[in-house]
Amino acid sequence: MRPTVKPALRRAWRERQTVQFGVTPAHAVTVGPVDTATGSFLQLLDGTRGLPLLREEARAMGLPESVADELVRRLTAAGLIDDPVGGGPAADALRERPADLERLRPDLASLSVLDREPGAGMRRLGARRPLRVQVRGAGRVVAALAAVLSASGIGRVDVLDGGHAQAWDVSPGGLPQRSVGERRDAAARRLVRHSAPGPAPRTAPDRVRRAEPPGEGEPPLSLVILAPRDGFAAYVPDPAVAEPWVSAGTPHLYAGVIEATGVVGPLVLPGGTACAGCLAGTRADRDPGWPRMLAQWRSGHGPATVPACDLGLATTVAGLAAAHALSFLDGELPASTGARWEASLPLLDWRAERLAPHPDCPCGAAGRPGRERLGATGATQDTMAG
After folding, report:
1. CB count, 10 Å around CB of 92?
2. What is the pTM of this model?
3. Torsion of CA 47, 52, 55, 60, to 10 degrees
C-alpha cells in the first residue's frame, strides 16, 4: 500500500488544529486535532511512498515513527486514504491499459470519493469492463445515454432499435448528422464504439440485433434500459414487454421524454420493487377510466406526430439516467430504485414518486417488503419502507 490522501477532496484548515477535506456536505470530512508537525507530514501522503519509507520520513522530521502508522490509520478510518496500487485484479488489468485509464481519470476521482476503502475506486472502475448493458431505443435520449455508459467504462453496451435515423434524432452527444438515413441501431452502435475509452470485448451483432440470450462466453445482462423515441412506453411501461426481464430476474430501468416531461425510473429489481405490472394495476385502481384511455393510446390509430422531446430536456434525462444506471452497476441503489423521477418544462422541478408493489401482481414484489437486490453484484440489503 502507498497511502495518499484522496486528491479529489479539496483541503482547507478550519482553524489551527482542524483540517477539512472536501467542500460539499455529502462528502466533506473534518479531522482534528492536527498539530503543525503532523500537518506538514500530511503533505507526504501523496501515493509515492509506502509505510516503511513514511516511517523514515517521520523520523527525519523529528517525529516518532508511530506518527506515520497512526495518521494513516486515522485517515483511513475517516475514509480519506486511497491506494494508487490497490483495487485487486480488475484494477491491475485497467492499469495495463494506460491510455484507457487516462480517459477515465475523472471517473476514477469520483469513485474514490464514494467508497471509504483504499483502492475501491480503481476496483469499481475496473469492474465495469466485464458488464453488459442493453439499451432499447436510439433517439435523442438513448443514443446519448448509451454513449455515456460506454465512455464511462462499461465494456458491453448493446443497442436495439428499428427503423432509420431521422433528422430529429440528431443531437449533441448522440447521433451525428451523417447518421440520418442509416439504421438507427447501427449508427448508435458506432457511436458507442467511438465513445469507449478503449477496445471493448468482442460482440455478436446478429445475436444482439435479435435480442437472443448471450452465447457461450458472453456475459449475462447486468441491466436493461428502455428509453424509446416515443417516451410513452417509458412513462406507461407495457407489462408484456417487461415480462421476460421480470421472469429472468433482469434489472431494468425506464427513462424518456413525453410531452415535454422528462422521466427517469423506476429502476425495477424483479421480485423486490414495483414492476410494469404493478404500475398498471395501481393506476387502474386509482383511475377507473385509465384502462380505456390506455387501450386507445396504444392502438396506434391517432395521427403520427414528432415526439415533443426538447433537446435540453432529452440531454438532461440521458445524463441522469446514465448516472442512475452507473450507480446501480457499481453496486448501489440509486434514488430511482422503485421510484420515478419526473420534471416538466418550463419549470423543471424534479420530483420523486415512490411506486409500491401491487398485491395482485404475479411478480411477487409485494410479498417481499424491505428486500432489494443490490447492483450488478447480486447482493441484497435491507431498505426502509415508504
Report:
1. 13
2. 0.87
3. -90
